[in-house]
Amino acid sequence: MTMRPFDILIAEDNEDDILLIREAFETVNMANRVAVVRDGEEALAYLRGEGPFSQCPFPGLVLLDINMPKKTGLEVLIEIKSDPRFRPLPVVMLTVSEREEDIVRSFEQGACSYIRKPVTFSRFLSVVKEFELYWTLVSRVPTLKR
């Protein structure tokens, strides 16, 4: 059975982390298209297809940083999971936070996974390879539309 690549939305405000994520995805030759937004309000506008995001494809997966401007990742997660159109959308928290309360709140609010950003590129590359294997070969994501 072949899996069609799904689009990934990355909500991340740190330019170094964005570069690291893109480079790691390219290194493992991920076939998924990746879109990046830089704050919580942009993440929600992207999902809703508002403004400059009106022609953007709906993602099959969201990678969401907790610490973002305008709306935190947890606030965005709460809004995603409170909207019936977006509730089935898998959201993975990808963050530097190791706080137990952030982990618990993320899962309480509907995150399907919590990944701590590794510090080194080689460790991050390892995480991305595992991530790609899981999300493309093991897990299935729903096909959702706005």
Index terms:
about 150 residues, alpha/beta, five-stranded parallel β-sheet, 5 helices, about 40% helix, globular
Please summarize what this structure is.
The protein has 146 residues and is of the alpha/beta class. It has helices spanning 15-27, 40-48, 73-82, 100-108, 121-138, and strands at residues 8-11, 34-37, 61-64, 91-95, 113-116.
Description of the structure:
The chain has about 150 residues and is of the alpha/beta class. The protein is built from 5 helices and 5 strands, in the order βαβαβαβαβα. Strands 2-1-3-4-5 form a 5-stranded parallel β-sheet. β4, α4 and β5 (about 115) form a beta-alpha-beta unit. α1 (about 15-25) crosses α5 and α2 runs parallel beside α3 (about 75-80). The longest helix has 18 residues, at about 120-140. It is globular and about 35 Å long. The mean pLDDT is about 85.
Strand order in space, largest sheet: 2-1-3-4-5
**Outline:** globular
Query: How helical, in percent, are the residues?
Result: 40-55%
The total count of strands amounts to 5
Uncertain residue segments:
none
Estimate what percentage of residues fall within beta strands: 5-15%
Largest sheet: 5 strands, parallel
What is the typical, i.e. mean, pLDDT?
86
Distance between the amino and carboxyl termini: 27 Å
- Based on helices, strands and strand pairing, what is the structural class? alpha/beta
Q: C-alpha Rg, in Å?
A: 14 Å
What is the N-to-C succession of helices and strands? EHEHEHEHEH
Number of helices: 5
